[in-house]
Structure prediction request, 320 residues.
Amino acid sequence: MGDVILTLPVIRALRNKFPRISIEYLTKSAYAPIIENQPGISRIITFEDNSSFSRAIRMVRAEKYELFIDLQANFRSMLLRAALFPVKTLQYKKRRFAREMVVRRSGLKLKIDHTVSAYFHPLTRLGIVDQPEPPALIMDSSSADYARKFIENSPLSTCRRIVAFCPGARHDEKKWPYENYMEVARRLLLDSSTGVIVISSSSDNLPHNQSFDHDRLLQAVDLDIKKVASLLSGCRIALTNDSGLMHLANAVGTPVMAIFGPTNPRLGFAPMLPGSKILCDDVRCSPCSVHGQKPCRQPVKYCFENITPERVVEGLMEIF
Prediction:
C-alpha cells in the first residue's frame, strides 16, 4: 500500500506536464481505491494473483501505449515490459545494492534518496524536473463524510483533538509493543479534550486483552481503505509504525509521529508531510533488514528499548 501511495506525486506531475494524456494504472485490486479518484487516471487495471495477472498482461498487450512507466522494478513488471515491447519504457531504479549496503554497513550511517525522489528520476527524460511534493490522496464525498459521522455519533464528538493509533505493520518486527501504545493512550486520555481511535486489521495479530476500557478510546478494525483514509483525515495526528498507514495518513494531510526500529528512515521511506516527526534511535544494529522482515538477533531489541511511552507523549505534545 505504501508503494502505491508514494506513486501519487508521479501521477500529479505527469498530469501537470501533459494535461491531455491518458494514464492507465495497473495495481492489485486491494489498492485500486487509492488511485480511483486521482485526476488524470482514465482506467485502472487490477489483478489479485498470478492467474489474474496473466489476464492483465493480455489486456495491456492489446492496447496501443506510447509509454510504459515501471515504478516497481520487479519480476511482474519485467513481464509487462516484455509483453509491451517495443513500447518505450521508463524504469525506476530499485537501488537494491544501495539498500543492502545501508543494512549491511549500518554502522556507517549510509543514506539513500527518498523513494519518491527515485520515482521522479526517470521522469527527467520527459522534461519533468520539479521537486516532488508529498503524496496527496483525493477522496470522494461519501468517504470524506464517513469520519464526520463516525466522530459525531461517538463520545469523541466533544474532543478538541483526536489521535489515530496505527499499531500494525506488515512484519511483526516493525511493531512497537502494543502495550506501549496503550500506555500512551492512558496518558493522553487524562486530558478530557483528547480522544483516541485505534485503527487496525485482523491480520495485524495484535495482542488480546491488552486494551483498556475508556469511552474516548475507540477501536476501528478491518475497515476498507477509503474508510481508514477518512478516519485518518479526521484526526489531528497519527501515531504509527513504519507502515502503509504512515504514508496513508500523510496522503490525507494528517501529520504522523512514526516509530522506526528495525527499519530506518535512511532507507528512503520516511514520512514526507511537513509537521511529521520520526522517532528513531538509529542504534548501531539498525536497520537490520530492508523491510523489517528478519527476526531480531540481539539479546535486547535495542532499536525500541529507549523509545518509551514518555518520549512518545512528549513528541506528540510538541506537534500539538
